[in-house]
Amino acid sequence: MSNAKTLSFVHRFEPATETGRPPLLLLHGTGGDEADLIPLGRAAAPGSALVSPRGQVLENGMPRFFRRLAEGVFDEADIRRRADDLADFVEEARAAYGLAAPIALGFSNGANIAAATLLLRPEALAGAVLLRAMVPLSTPPVADLAGKPVLLLSGMVDSIVPAENASRLAGQLRDAGADVEHAVLPAGHGLSQVDLTRVAGWVQRQWTLAAPRSVSAA
Ligand code: MLT
């Protein structure tokens, strides 16, 4: 049975089963949907609320979060518009479900829209896990990401994301003030068990760090 309300994106919602844990915003890759990352979200952040929207762009019938002109060549005007739409959806979901600002957990196209949303609408996200992300905007906006935690996991033999591109994204986020952890894993574009282990450890550290803040905010 779905707990999801009718909001601007088709989505899945799973309520938190433990208090004080930041919610996750799950953002699937090309051709995925709102069900794809639920198992990863549950495994990496047990007890957290999960909000998982479906991308609104269709490429040959495959859902995505923004248009591209070719693989790795993005329609940046569309990215800006879609990042805005996604940030608006996050606001709606927070109001509808009573959530704190979520940490985005995105894979591939979902990681790219998460990076764009961080840079364009930083207030929408508390941080991000970017799996196999690349630079979404050739000229990044001036953003204040001070104190936002970001985990970027790249693949050493990723046939879609060149190593230089992933490092450039890490640099852009660091320049904006984010607290970036960037690791290059012995993997390709696909995810591995190592990703899950790294993500789960990082999320656990965010909970530990956030705990005193939630107590004092109560
Ligand atoms: C993108 O289009 O966002 C990236 O090329 C990753 C992909 O979805 O294949």
Q: What does this molecule look like?
A:
The protein has helices spanning 38-44, 76-97, 109-120, 163-175, 193-217, and strands at 11-14, 24-27, 50-53, 57-59, 62-64, 68-70, 73-74, 103-107, 127-131, 149-155, 179-185. Helices cover 36% and strands 22% of the residues. Helix 2 crosses helix 3 (109-120). Strand 8 (103-107), helix 3 (109-120) and strand 9 (127-131) form a beta-alpha-beta unit. The chain has a seven-stranded mixed β-sheet, sandwiched between helices. The protein has a two-stranded antiparallel ribbon with strand order 4-5. It has one domain (11-210): Alpha/Beta hydrolase fold, catalytic domain (Rossmann fold, 3-Layer(aba) Sandwich). The protein is built from five helices and eleven strands. Mean pLDDT is 95; it is low at 214-218. It has 218 residues and is of the alpha/beta class.
What is shown here, in short?
Belongs to the AB hydrolase superfamily. AB hydrolase 2 family. This is Hydrolase. Helix content is 36%, strand content 22%.
| Mean pLDDT reading | 95
**Assembly state:** single chain
* CATH architecture level-2 label: 3-Layer(aba) Sandwich
Largest sheet: 7 strands, mixed
Proportion in helices: 25-40%
| Amino- and carboxy-terminal Cα gap | 32 Å
CATH topology: Rossmann fold
Number of strands: 11
Structural class: alpha/beta
Overall 3D form: globular
| SSE ordering | EEHEEEEEHEHEEHEH
Q: Specify the CATH homologous superfamily.
A: Alpha/Beta hydrolase fold, catalytic domain
Task: Look at the structure and give the CATH class.
Answer: Alpha Beta
Radius of gyration, whole Å: 16 Å
Q: Unreliable runs, pLDDT <50, ≥5 residues?
A: 214-218
Bound molecule types: D-malate
Number of domains: 1
Side-by-side strand order of the widest sheet: 1-3-2-8-9-10-11
**Approximately what portion of the residues adopt beta-strand conformation?**
15-25%
Tally of individual helices:
5
